[in-house]
Amino acid sequence: MPTAPRIAVLLPCHNEAVAIAGVVAAFRAALPGAEIHVYDNNSTDGTVAAARAAGARLGEEALQGKGNVLRRMFSDIEADFFLMADGDGTYDAADAPSMLALALAKRLDMVTAVRVGQGDAAYRPGHAWGNRLLTGLVGAIFGRRQADMLSGYRMLSRRFVKSFPALSGGFEIETELTVHALELRMPIGEIRSAYGARPAGSASKLRTFHDGARILATILALLQRERPLPFFGALAGLFLLAAIGFFAPVFTTYLASGLVPRLPTFLASVCCLQLSFLAMAVGLILDTVTRGRQEARRIAYLAIAGPGCREPATLSPAPGAKLDETPAVHPG
């Protein structure tokens, strides 16, 4: 008889004393057998006491930022499935069983809750527009398989979590999670979920323009790291266009007079041409390196049993068989 999967609910928190008790209670009601983990991130408002009173398992991370907290949680906690959420009460805990059921039924490594705002106070139009823009940008680069790249409400398999490098420090962690799944071509899915307003008395930690700029910078860094040939190929093309632009008037003058009076312009065209060749060479070399890194990540991912699969059994001898303890000697 198959055993029920172990579920860990991960709630990274910074100053969420107003909401955290209700969030813990909601997820305990939605997933009665799950372990609820609250990791505090330098709170100063009684978040730890509220989480302890609610019966959550407590942890802490001193490095500030959601990405840092989740990296610590991914390394500390063991489970078959990990449910990421926020401690601010904006995500609907009642949808957690549906996310788990979808992950189990289709053996998915990630199920994302696509946020459906319950009024402007919950999902401000500017945030929704920025999310669509950034999600569309990632989709154009890495594949259009996610409708809400910045959602922080996700069900993740053990092999996803334990093969995820988690390099981000802040709110850009969701971008990194999405690109990790798209790059390894993992089986993923989505459900639509209500996204509500924060409870009265709590304040959002999201800084719209600052965090949006960090997410955009993360996307560009991931493009350079995961798609080096297109990235450096585009740079090579720009340098080549600049070289042609510098060289065209010099060549026109040379055809008319047989002289090259614009020597600095000619040298600038030569430098741009060399930079174009260099950028293309760097792109080709890094593309080979990236392919090797992707293969290594894929092997690490496959080394962990997937959703609904058993861990590989250790081979044991058949009954009555004798083990030859003499080491084999190979000629030559």
From TrEMBL:
A single GO molecular function term of this UniProt record: transferase activity
Tree of life domain: Bacteria
Origin species: Teichococcus deserti
InterPro entries, per the entry: Glyco_trans_2-like, Glycosyltransferase_2, Nucleotide-diphossugar_trans
Entry annotated with the keyword Transmembrane: yes
Gene3D superfamilies, A to Z: Spore Coat Polysaccharide Biosynthesis Protein SpsA, Chain A (3.90.550.10)
Record Pfam families: Glycos_transf_2
Biased composition regions of type Basic and acidic residues, renumbered to the chain: 322-332
Protein name: Glycosyl transferase
Region (Disordered): 313-332
Alphabetical UniProt keywords: Membrane, Transferase, Transmembrane, Transmembrane helix
Location of the Glycosyltransferase 2-like domain: 9-160
Transmembrane segments: 231-254, 266-289
